Amino acid sequence: MGKIILYDDIDVFLKKGAILVDVRTPKEWEDTGVIEGSIKKVSFDEDNKLDMARFERELQEAGVKKDSEILLICRSGIRSGVVARELAKLGYGKTYNVTFGINGWIAHNLPTTKKKRDL
């Protein structure tokens, strides 16, 4: 099962080489921007179904390995929590769900790729 971290732990993990994966939709990425350096991978389709085979394949194509430290973020922490649990079942032993998601990040005035005046 994936572990839970807070938005303010992200920088510490990234400095140690962790990979941040934003599992939201393209519309959400456009609306709020993303955290600099994150990998954008859609997890749930339009019917709110998770295709883990596709998602895992896309992670591997992006260079993510089963022994990688992976931080997963969505809007509020729910979808990323599901993905973290599913990745753990597939043998990804270092998965972390960013609780409160991008909402927590933005609520604390932390930067995204979208300019503040555009939010």
Explain this structure to me?
This protein is an alpha/beta fold and 119 residues long. It has a single domain (3-118), classed as Oxidized Rhodanese, domain 1, CATH 3.40.250.10. The relative contact order is 0.26. The chain is globular, with a radius of gyration of 13 Å. The chain has 5 helices and 5 strands. Strands 1-5-4-2-3 form a 5-stranded parallel beta sheet.
Short description:
The chain has one domain (3-118): Rhodanese-like domain (Oxidized Rhodanese, domain 1, 3-Layer(aba) Sandwich). Helix content is 35%, strand content 16%.
CATH topology call = Oxidized Rhodanese, domain 1
**What is the count of distinct domains?**
1
What is the count of DSSP helices, taking H or I runs of 4+ residues?
A: 5
Give the terminus-to-terminus CA distance. Answer: 34 Å
Name the CATH superfamily classification.
Rhodanese-like domain
| Cα-based radius of gyration, to the nearest Å | 13 Å
Low-confidence stretches: none
Major sheet strand order: 1-5-4-2-3
Count of β-strands: 5
Estimated structural class? alpha/beta
Give the helix proportion (percent range): 25-40%
